[in-house]
Amino acid sequence: MTNEQDSHLETPGMPEPQSFNDATAAVDRLEEIYRAATTFLCDRFTVALSDGAPSTRCRAYYPEVRITTTSFASIDSRLSFGHVAEPGTYATTITRPDLFRHYLIQQIGLLMENHDIPVTIGASSTPMPVHFAVAAAGDVVVPGAGAAPFTLRDVFDVPDLSTTNDEIANGYGFTYPDGASPLAPFTAQRVDYSLARLSHYTATDAEHFQNHILFTNYQFYVEEFEAYAREMLADPKSGYTSFVATGNQEITSADGEIDTPAKLPQMPTYHLKRAGSGGITLVNIGVGPSNAKTATDHIAVLRPHAWLMVGHCAGLRNSQQLGDFVLAHAYLREDHVLDDDLPVWVPIPALAEIQTSLEHAVEEVSGLQGYELKRLMRTGTVATIDNRNWELRDQSGPVQRLSQSRAIALDMESATIAANGYRFRVPYGTLLCVSDKPLHGELKLPGMATDFYKTQVTRHLKIGIRAMEILRDMPLERIHSRKLRSFEETAFL
């Protein structure tokens, strides 16, 4: 171990920054630096718990990726990622390179290819909080305030919320302290924060999440998802390899046993896994825009290729029937939870690749095509509100706005999920199922709801799964549309 100039600060020995022309070798070095940092912090922390606070402060740093380019040479303008906009120095701090290995090799490789330059890998100047280091280790736990025999922040760095934010994703002109522009949409601390939150809210580890995320607002979909997963595991040709339930319970055969937990997490999450994270994750976010924002805020750091909402909604047109589908092509945002991050005047465009995938999936599962599909599915504006019992208030205002917006469905999550997809550059879409028609006297009553769930949930879920399978087969550069990229965009997806 080496000491910095301050004799009261102990840090692990780190290799000098080195340039790499091979993406795999670059990521290997990222893993080496990260492993040295976390091992150092875990070792020092374990000793401090048993022997008391050390005489020196213990600090380790996140690894970083850095490039400098001096050329305005044009790149393939069809690409929405994999390049920087202009000459300069760009960097990003990195956490969990083991978890993001494939992603990092892919993104670093594109930088090398598109700019014909090496990348520099070394230790950054950003301290690694001890909480995140031990979380990565998995076998050490940071005790709560007052439980340790010393004041934690006197010896180790702790999470700093002043630097854990969405300034990059929100386009607030973030630069690193040395003036480097960001290479990636999230800093290492921001990623670590979300990885910890994901484990808490979903009761599954981040490593199980797949690249295609389905969100729902009812537990009924979970039961059907598990049944579908078991069917796939019984079919050796399906390509799916395992199913993971809450508590990280993983089965690889159709008859594998899964225990029912005594208490479900806030957002029960299940993963139908496939090689290369090409499977499907289902998240039951429950009801409300706050949950929808919470889930998408944290899942976004995993850089999924798409997320879709497949929940229930109120149909707003008399011509709709219970069980009809609604394919959102616009959103009326009255959820309010993202107003400070993404003002309501920002349009949330429909993405052609998502829309066509959902429509084709409805055709395949329903057997209807062309004009006949209109009997079952309607395309239009989905309104999202933050008041579940809006019907109990004066309806003249809300109903007028819904009519003026041409809304055909109302829910509490879809616009939030779409808006956060837009904000975080994650392709998004919505296919809802009409479960009640409050403006026309058809409320969701217990008996009717039970019958509805029995007949519609299976078909709806299969449509969502099929849409994800269609998207999975698309080239990455086609799914990640230029519509989601701003004037000054990060090179990494």
Question: Could you please describe the fold and organization of this structure?
Answer:
The chain is α/β, with parallel strands linked by helices and 493 residues long. It folds into 2 domains: 2-198, 2-Layer Sandwich (amp nucleosidase, domain 1); 203-482, Rossmann fold, CATH 3.40.50.1580. Helices cover 34% and strands 21% of the residues. It contains 13 helices and 19 strands. It has helices at residues 23-51, 101-115, 130-137, 152-155, 167-170, 188-202, 220-234, 289-299, 352-366, 396-404, 414-424, 446-472, 476-479, and strands at 2-3, 9-11, 18-20, 57-58, 61-69, 88-93, 119-127, 181-182, 212-216, 240-245, 249-251, 269-274, 280-284, 306-309, 312-315, 325-334, 377-385, 407-411, 428-436. The strands form 3 sheets. Strands 3-7-5-6-8 form a 5-stranded mixed sheet. A 5-stranded mixed barrel has the order 15-18-17-16-19, surrounded by 4 helices. Strands 1-2-4 form a 3-stranded mixed sheet. α1 (23-51) crosses α2, α6 (188-202) crosses α8 (289-299) and α9 (352-366) crosses α12. It is globular, with a radius of gyration of 24 Å. It starts with a strand and ends in a 14-residue tail after the last helix.
